[in-house]
Amino acid sequence: MTDEQTFSYCSGDLSIELATPADYQRVGELTAESYFAAGHFSSPQDEYLNFVRKVAERATQTEVYVVRRAGEIVGSMTLIRAGSDYADIARADELEIRMLSVDPAAQRGGIGRAMVLAAIDRARLIPGINAVSLTTGSTWASARGLYETLGFAHHPERDWVVPNTDIKLVVYAYRL
């Protein structure tokens, strides 16, 4: 078994573990649903939402994790290393969090916090990884507040704009 297959994290009634192929459809739909419900996209069939639904493809190059509460998937995140086709900002010594999503019906219950803490724990187990990085929306105050309370620092020199849009994204990193 690989490190990611044996990695798990528990917080209260939440358990976080590597997604299995049986989880992939739910992960894709949950991610698309949570992003659409947050008002980030005008259509549930947006090109990016269709991209996040392709979990089986993503899992070949990344670590896709699920959060379970009472056996039900209520959240998901993808952890990515530099060099992957899915890496947006990861540097050679960073583990990047992408596609972090929480079921809209379960938001504000500590699921996002637990996933970020699990990502930090996972990063500490990978030789050569010295930081966890992520991108978030420049206007997403609650997400930015969560990352800052957990010790992430904004790195404005790494901020970027989504190609062919006016959407500004900001970069945070947590040094291990």
UniProtKB/TrEMBL annotation:
<dbReference type="Pfam" id="PF00583">
    <property type="entry name" value="Acetyltransf_1"/>
</dbReference>
<keyword id="KW-0012">Acyltransferase</keyword>
<protein>
    <submittedName>
        <fullName>N-acetyltransferase</fullName>
    </submittedName>
</protein>
<dbReference type="InterPro" id="IPR050832">
    <property type="entry name" value="Bact_Acetyltransf"/>
</dbReference>
<feature type="domain" description="N-acetyltransferase">
    <location>
        <begin position="14"/>
        <end position="176"/>
    </location>
</feature>
<keyword id="KW-0808">Transferase</keyword>
<dbReference type="InterPro" id="IPR000182">
    <property type="entry name" value="GNAT_dom"/>
</dbReference>
<dbReference type="InterPro" id="IPR016181">
    <property type="entry name" value="Acyl_CoA_acyltransferase"/>
</dbReference>
